[in-house]
Write a structure and sequence with these properties.
mainly alpha; three-stranded parallel beta sheet; 16 helices; about 60% helix; TIR domain-containing protein
Length: about 300
């Protein structure tokens, strides 16, 4: 993707939090904790590359179950993600999942369309799909995370302008794919301004900076886990729904929930969705929209309301 989005740089350079992050970065990359995490991430990335090479994945388009399980475990050293389970290949079928992963990594289509196809898999959301990319090549791809938006307070008009440029060039992309591509453009500018070697370093610095501005009790994310933490992980920040909010003209159920309860709510929503019902939740609010007005509209037009 080559977009002329100079206003992103201007926005970041005028953002107080980003200016603080630039100062924090110089101190943080010298810390022992950062070096430890980064070394572990490098090792995990090398191990994943070794598995793909040993399996000759590029030639054979086939990863065995035990190879996928090893990759999932290594991916959790980049960020906690409960979506990385056997359900990904069981629900989609092993062959189908392998084909879509191969296409994401080696396909000839441009990234927006490869990402858009991969995210259609069950149990795969925006953050999970982006994580598969960053562990494959962290020089090209970032992990999409809403924490970046929270810290940098991205203005709606910034996101909407990026969106307009993307849909001018690429057609028929899902909202989740558009969201990833919007973050992708912002991450590119962050990497340049922070003079970082790869995109994963952005996530590490952002997450560690978040710890300095957010009380410990409110922290919702950690990165780099020990094997014991991976086995006992009960973090829910990376929980994702494998489907987008309904945006058609038919009947649908409006679902309202507190985001801290999504570990409880999401499985119930998946069960309802699997029975053939259309669900609308706040992911269905378009970029640059007025939230209260959109929610009011969704409630008025729904067939059933769940709270």
């Amino acid at each position: 993707m080559i977009l002329q989005l100079y206003f992103i740089k201007e926005y970041l350079q005028s953002n107080g939090n980003f200016l603080n992050i630039k100062i924090f970065k110089q101190q943080d990359i010298q810390s022992n904790e950062y070096k430890k995490w980064f070394n572990q991430a490098c090792h995990a990335k090398e191990e994943i590359a070794s598995i793909l090479q040993s399996a000759q994945f590029k030639q054979n388009k086939q990863l065995k179950i035990d190879e996928l399980e090893k990759i999932f475990k290594l991916m959790k050293k980049f960020s906690k993600n409960q979506s990385l389970t056997r359900l990904i290949y069981e629900l989609n079928g092993l062959e189908n999942f392998n084909n879509q992963l191969w296409n994401l990594y080696y396909g000839q289509e441009s990234l927006p369309y490869r990402f858009n196809n991969f995210i259609k898999l069950q149990k795969v959301g925006q953050q999970t799909a982006s994580q598969f990319l960053v562990v494959f090549d962290w020089n090209k791809y970032p992990i999409s995370t809403y924490k970046m938006e929270q810290i940098l307070a991205l203005e709606t008009e910034i996101k909407n302008t990026i969106k307009r440029e993307i849909i001018t060039k690429y057609k028929d992309l899902s909202k989740r794919s558009l969201n990833f591509l919007i973050y992708f453009e912002v991450y590119k500018e962050i990497r340049l301004l922070l003079e970082l070697d790869n995109y994963y370093q952005i996530n590490m610095i952002l997450w560690r900076y978040l710890q300095t501005i957010q009380p410990k009790s409110e922290q919702r994310i950690e990165i780099i886990q020990t094997d014991e933490e991976i086995e006992n992980d009960n973090n829910d920040f990376f929980l994702e729904l494998p489907f987008g909010a309904y945006d058609g003209g038919g009947r649908y159920i409006f679902v309202s929930y507190a985001h801290e309860d999504k570990k409880i709510v999401y499985p119930e929503m998946e069960m309802i969705y699997s029975e053939g019902y259309n669900l609308w939740y706040d992911e269905g609010i378009p970029l640059a929209s007025e939230w209260p007005a959109e929610i009011e509209k969704a409630i008025k037009n729904c067939h059933l309301f769940l709270v």
